[in-house]
Amino acid sequence: MGLFKDVKKPVIKAASVGAEISPLRPRYAEKAPPCACGCPSGSDVRGWLTTIAQAEAYGRTNEQAYEIAWRMITERNPFPAVCGRVCPHPCEDSCNRAGKEGPVAINAMERFIGDMAISKGWKLSKLTEERQPETIGVIGSGPAGLSCAYQLARRGYAVTVYEAFPEAGGMLRYGIPRYRLPQEVLDAEIQRILDVGVELKCNTIIGKDISLDELRQRHPAIFVGIGAHRGLKLGVPGEDAANVFTGTEFLNRVNSGEPVQVGEQVIVIGGGDTAIDAARIAKRLGASTTILYRRTRAEMPAIKPEIEGALEEGIDIQFLAAPVEILRNNGNAVGIRAIRMELGAPDKSGRPRPVPKPGSEFEIPATAIIAAISQEPEFQGFDGLHEGKDWIKTDEWGATAQEGVYAGGDDIQLGLATIAISQGRFAAEAIDARLRGQKLEKRAAPASITTERMKLGWYKPLDRHERAHLPVEERGLDNEIEGGLSEAQALEEAKRCMSCGMCMDCETCWMYCTNNCFIRLPKGEHYKVKLEVCNGCKKCAEECPCGFIDLV
After folding, report:
1. Is residue 548 within 8 Å of 31, Cβ to Cβ?
2. Rounded to the nearest 10 degrees, what angle do helices 45-53 and 106-120 cross at?
3. What pLDDT is recorded for position 20?
4. Strand partners, 244
């Protein structure tokens, strides 16, 4: 990377008469950018953004830079077009550019690159053409399972994915509305994984069509990524009515193309993404929709833009309200008796505990009710992997208590798709190391560079590019609400990356050095320093905008 050569610190002598001499000398020291530290997949966000931004400087065409960027992303995440749509982008929350005009639109850029790859037909790369003798079984074709399968296939293993549903994708297919994630996008990125050498067997239920023990005899290593498809019940009287659905059941039926009759007035219980998605779909089915959430908006766990989208579409969200009973007539739900809540002391989640407010009960009529309070895995056929109500327990590499069995995704803890993708990759690395007799090294989280080490004023103000949204009146079940960046916008957005902690050849150190210590190297190698003429004036480190230079 063009780091300073390891040169012994010279004997200190005056470089010029009257010069102040310091024992400190500059050293290039790459720092971890906060975007990568904030990404559960550990994507080299800085690397692929600067690859695009500096394409011309490196003698590349834009398309060449896009493909390099895509290959950098897919080293860890084979779903950039999917994640560019559904990930709530915690990487942006950490972006140092937020101290100026706002964080870099990393998520929009990831979608741009992912969509470019689909349109160009780029293929995923293998790490080796060598074929390993072992076969691996992966149970579940959600983001965790397919990520694990991809990472193992590219290492030369024959991988078979066993999926209970008719199509691959897990919650990406059956739990996310098509107006957020078009099926053709998901299909394209799944097919690319299969093309690496992954066999997919759908409509295969573990415990019914084949047992876990049989799979363990067939494969020396198993990854379990069954997700959490079973919605939890409310635990109130009357919820066994035919027109009361769980959130996961409702979304699954709609995404599977089944007709679902909800009538004119739908009530959704819950405050997470499933609740918001269910409410917005019910609205698209023609119902007036109300969400009841027992806390305030500040505690609502759903993605903020999705909450805002629901409000834009006229969905009524009643905060500090919880169901007490499902009102029924002739076996069907006709409404909800609810109660107003107050916030008390924090519970185990750290959020204030909702407490019923005496004498505040009220009723709301309904033609259908959707309980979207949470969900859990369906553990039938996997009884040996968990105890009681506990979910699957793993170590940091995804290994379970059963020899050769690994797990990841929502069956160990509900989380983001990008977390599931990273867990699938970690498990694949662990499986490969175990089968090849290699040692695994623990992952140390690097400290990220913050604005205190940078000079924000050096960077030109550049407005963030936002994605366009369909007007409310044009939104439907299948037409995607959020648009993508144009190529011109993407090129400009990439230039907003400040290359935090990594040299970008800005020449600042070279320009501020009065002793001409810095010698330019070929593009990408940056500089070397003549330590024998350096007097330790500190200017290079003090003026480096991205915090790449240390003094030691």
Report:
1. yes
2. 70
3. 61
4. 369
Q: Is residue 129 part of a domain?
A: no
pLDDT digits (tens, 9 = 90+) for 121-140: 999 999 999 999 999 999 99
Among candidate residues 265, 275, 282, 269, the one with its CA nearest the CA of residue 306: 275
Buried b / exposed e along 212-226 (16+ C-beta atoms within 10 A): beebbeebbbbbbbb
Q: Is the pLDDT of residue 442 over 80?
A: no
In a domain, 73, yes or no: yes
Q: Which of 398, 401, 422 is CA-nearest to residue 412?
A: 398
Longest dimension (CA), the chain: 100
**Residue 331's domain spans which residues?**
232-373
Residues 418 and 39: beta-carbon distance below 8 Å: yes
Provide the domain count of the chain: 4
Beta pairing class for 368-371 and 244-246: parallel
Q: Could you give the CA distance from residue 74 to residue 57 in angstroms, rounded to a whole number?
A: 24
> 421 near 147, Cβ under 8 Å?
yes
For residue 525, what is the domain's CATH number? 3.30.70.20
More confident residue, 350 or 370: 370
Q: What is the pTM of this model?
A: 0.93
Residues 139 and 193 in one domain: yes
450-495 tens-digit pLDDT: 999 999 999 999 999 999 999 999 999 999 999 999 999 999 999 9
Quick one: pLDDT at residue 18? 46
In this model, does residue 22 exceed pLDDT 90? Answer: no
Q: Is 113 exposed, middle or buried (CB count within 10 Å of its CB: 0-12, 13-18, 19+)?
A: buried
Residues 186 and 213 in one domain: yes
Same-domain pairing of 39 and 88: yes
pLDDT tens digits, one per residue of 231-273: 999 999 999 999 999 999 999 999 999 999 999 999 999 999 9
Q: Which residues contact 454 (CB under 8 A, 6 or more apart)?
A: 96, 498, 500, 545, 546, 547
Q: Say which CATH number the domain at 459 has.
A: 1.10.1060
